[in-house]
Design goal:
The chain contains twelve helices and 27 strands. With 467 residues, the protein is an alpha+beta fold. The strands form six sheets. Strands 16, 17, 18, 21, 22, 23, 24 and 27 form an eight-stranded antiparallel β-sheet that branches. The chain has a seven-stranded antiparallel β-sheet with strand order 1-2-3-10-5-8-15. Keywords: Disulfide bond, Seed storage protein, Signal, Storage protein. One of its GO terms (molecular function) is nutrient reservoir activity.
Length: 467
């Protein structure tokens, strides 16, 4: 009897050790701070969200998801979608929260961090993730011939944010209109305007501080009705086309693989050890990575789709922001394995198509079971189990996660929970015969994460996974 007890303890220990090791390796206990202060995540129902507030600038449209919605309160995030017209300039600004932006429609954006002569211009292409640390000023310019659409996700509970769990945008030029507390999307909303930082300073003191005349100080303090995005009809003269060497360097930054990882080994250390302020801390950091190329997917399944994950292991700046992202594409009628996020909330934004999404909470109840489509947002709280099935037009999404090394636990497929359970455990757990338990355990054979439509799954070959 003692021998049996020891064996049971040994088997449990083998199961627990990898989990403990994994948690320590990603700093599991240090990722979030403010997410458990209230009862925001006691959700009985989840729903696909549309932007609630909208305002137009001269060169584009800003659409804001309701930050007071219980789902976004649970995840402590703010989400904004911006559409920037060709030759449009998003004026210099910064915010109190770190953010990730994903460009999912055409246009050719250019973004720059503001500093001194050591500025660096980044070309923001379709499929790029752009990481912007809190308090770092930046601008965007669309040098293409089509609108640029980007979804931006901000972590309002970041330890860097010393204000409150609200996204605040600080303008260095232009006007930012904020919705009133009782505002609504599409009618009856009440707005208040926020002006750029220079506008309310004493004109004489501002002129003295900037080394300019009072007349010029008055010019830059004038109210600007154009909003936060303005037209540069003659083109932005300060933006020069990159050389071939710069283009190659950008390509290496986006798709550097193992070689890129070696080049960035010291990058995070530079950020952590810097004591010379924001410019030194972030000037050398790589802020952009493309996640839209199926040839470089982490998981690729013929005729089913692909997944590409972006963590701090691939983009070290995410280790400072404590955020990560995943790009997913499902083809017609393809389906994902049921999964949960071990150490992060997951915010899913649909970039194309439609899909049926089911989410189950800790009580085993479906808190969401229905369709979400292009332009909608769904928050999936940590450890809630999620399943996605694409409709006939397919389903494409980008998900933002509140951990720089977010971990998923798959229920079905290779290296999944079911695959790791003995047949007898499955049989007794579900009161099945052993032969049926074997089918449950190996029903998806060597599938990884996503599976093709059931009728064609046998003929489509095995998936490819990059570990």
């Amino acid at each position: 009897m003692a021998s049996s007890s020891s064996l049971i303890f040994f088997l449990l220990l083998l199961l627990l050790l990898p989990c403990v090791s994994l948690a320590q390796s990603v700093g599991y206990g240090e990722q979030r701070r403010l997410r458990f202060l209230g009862k925001e995540c006691q959700l009985d129902r989840l729903s696909g969200m549309q932007p609630r507030y909208r305002f137009e600038s001269e060169a584009g449209v800003t659409e804001i998801f309701d930050e007071d919605d219980q789902q976004l309160q649970c995840a402590s995030v703010s989400v904004i979608r911006r559409t920037l017209k060709p030759l449009g300039l998003f004026l210099p600004a910064f915010s109190n929260n770190p953010s990730l932006s994903f460009g999912f429609e055409h246009g050719r954006g250019q973004s720059e961090r503001l500093g001194d002569e050591h500025q660096k211009i980044l070309h923001f292409r379709q499929g790029d993730i752009l990481a912007i640390p809190a308090g770092v000023a930046h601008w965007w310019y669309n040098s293409g011939d089509r609108p640029l659409v980007a979804i931006s996700f901000s972590d309002t509970s970041s330890s860097v944010n010393q204000l409150d769990k609200t996204h605040r945008q600080f303008m260095l030029a232009g006007t930012y209109r904020k919705e009133g507390s009782r505002g609504s999307f599409g009618g009856g909303q009440q707005y208040s305007s926020s002006y750029h930082a220079f506008r309310s300073f004493d004109t004489r003191l501002l002129g003295e501080a900037l080394g300019i005349s009072q007349e010029l100080a008055q010019e830059i303090q004038r109210e600007d009705p154009r909003g936060e995005m303005v037209m540069v009809r003659e083109g932005l003269k300060l933006v020069f086309p990159p050389s071939k060497e710069q283009l190659r360097e950008e390509e290496e930054e986006s798709y550097g693989g193992l070689r890129g990882s070696k080049r960035c080994e010291g990058e995070e250390e530079t950020i952590k050890r810097s004591s010379n302020g924001v410019r030194v801390a972030f000037c050398t950091a790589r802020l952009r990575e493309n996640i839209n190329d199926p040839r470089r997917a982490d998981i690729f399944v013929p005729h089913a789709g692909w997944l590409k994950k972006l963590t701090s292991q691939k983009l070290p700046i995410l280790g400072i922001l404590k955020l990560s992202a995943t790009r997913g594409v499902l083809h017609r009628q393809a389906i994902t394995s049921p999964l949960w996020n071990v150490n992060a909330h997951c915010i899913v934004y649909v970039t194309r198509g439609r899909g049926r999404v089911q989410v189950v909470n800790d009580e085993g109840r479906a808190v969401h079971s229905g369709e979400i489509r292009q332009g909608q947002l769904l928050v999936v709280p940590q450890n809630f189990v999620m399943l996605i099935k694409a409709e006939d037009e397919g389903f494409e999404w980008v998900s933002f996660k509140t951990n720089d090394n977010a971990i998923e636990s798959q229920i079905a497929g290779k290296a999944s929970v079911l695959r790791g359970l003995p047949v007898d455990v499955v049989a007794n757990a579900f009161r099945l015969r052993n032969e049926d338990a074997f089918k449950v355990k190996f029903g998806r054979a060597d599938g990884v994460g996503i599976f093709p439509a059931h009728s064609s799954q046998e003929e489509l070959g095995r998936p490819y996974a990059v570990v």
